[in-house]
Amino acid sequence: MSAHSLTLDGVTPRAAAMAPDDRRRAILAVLVPLIVERGGDVSTREIARAAGIAEGTIFRVFPDKKSLMLAAAEEAINPADGQAAFDEAMAGAEGLRAKVVVATERVLDRMRLTMSVMMAARQHLMAAHEAGEHQRTGPDGKPAFGPPPFVMQAQEDLHRRLTGLFEPHRDELAVEPSVAAVALRSLIFGASRPELGMTPALTPDQIADLLLDGVRRRDS
């Protein structure tokens, strides 16, 4: 019987002892795909059953459903193992174009996943916003609101990863690696927005061609 199975009397087996950070990662690893499949109405009982733990175990790691859903949104947009997974993917790509295609595929997949989870968590995101949890001080010293800090951090991390992609190929570029990273990110983010009616979408290969070769004919 697997760790996720129920015992014969229908009681969820006691979870093995884990450090809080490990337990948090284990819960989120189950929760993110569950949200994609079921949406934001998934209950903590269902989450516990899928994770093979008691429902109370969730609340020893997350104080309430809102913090649980916000953690899932953060994991979706910027997974804890994101840098290691990105490095592993890049290690299997040969040459600048191949790396751009692989990075684009990964970011597009992550965008689709993130959209699903963010939509499911939207009521909790709005509650956090209304409670002033996303408030910070603006340049003028006055209170300012913006995206949750984890969204800002995700963009910073993505920019750093894409800049790192271009850095070994600096001699092939007409711009700084950081500028190339912004250009690639802009193409990716604008490539597939069906919720805005922007179809057809650009493929990873088309994005790589546009980024590296532009839109003008070579004989122009």
UniProtKB/TrEMBL annotation:
Pfam families: TetR_N (PF00440). Residues 43-62 bind DNA. Keywords: DNA-binding, Transcription, Transcription regulation. InterPro entries: Homeodomain-like_sf, HTH-type_TetR-like_transc_reg, HTH_TetR. Residues 21-80 form the HTH tetR-type domain. The keyword NAD does not apply. This is TetR/AcrR family transcriptional regulator.
